[in-house]
Amino acid sequence: MNGQTILIGALLWATICSIVSQAAEPVEAAKKVAKVPWDLYLAQLSQQVDCYFTIERMGFMPGKGKIPPSPFHRDDLTSDPNIKTVESLVAKLRKEMKGVVVIENAKNPAVIHLIEERVLKIDGYVMDKKIDITYSGVLAKLPVELEKRLPEIGPFRGGSTHDMLVDYITQVKVDAKNQTVREVLTGCVPLKNYSPILWTAKTRKTDGRCKTTVGHAGPKSLPGATKE
To answer: Which residue of 88, 96, 118, 146 shows the fewest CB atoms closer than 10 Å?
Structure first.
C-alpha cells in the first residue's frame, strides 16, 4: 500500500465520519427537545412538580363563521426534566402557552389555573363572580347547585364535550362565603390521588348569552369518573 492510497483512504474515512456526525446532530437535538400534546404535557408536569391544573376555554359557537383555533389544541409544547418548582413551571407555561393566562391559586400554589384569554374578555364572566354556597354530595352535582344560583354556569351535558369527565365518586362538603366560582370548584377537591386536571370548563355563546359548563375529572385510579 503506497502513500497515495493511504491518503485517499484517510480522506474517505474523514468524509464518512463527517456525514454520520451531521446526520446524528438533528436526532440528538430532537431527543433534547421532545414535543408533546398539551394534555400529556400537563400530565407529565403534574408528576414532575407535584401540581394540578384547571382548564377554562371557549367552546364552539354556532353561527360565528371561522372560529380562531383554541390555544389548547397544540402539540408543540416541549418537555423539560429541569423543571422542579411551581415557579419555574409557571414561567415555562406563560412562555409556551400563548393565548392562555396562567394563574397560581391564591390558597394553594400547587394548583395552577389555565384560562383562555378570550373567556376573560367576556363581560360578567361567571368564574369570577362571587357566591355563597353550602353543599354536601358528589362533585358531579356541585355544578347543578351552582346553576340554581347562577344560571350562567351548569354541568356539562354531553354534546361535543366528549373529552370532559364527571366525577360521581368523590364526596365533598362545601361551605363557601363570598368566594369566586373558580375557588368553589377548586377548593373542595381532595388532591391526593386526583387527576392532574381537576376540572375543565367550556364557555359558549348562544342567543346572545354565555353559558359555562364544567365537569370534574375524578380520581386517577378509582372507577366512577365516567364520560357522559
So the answer is: 88
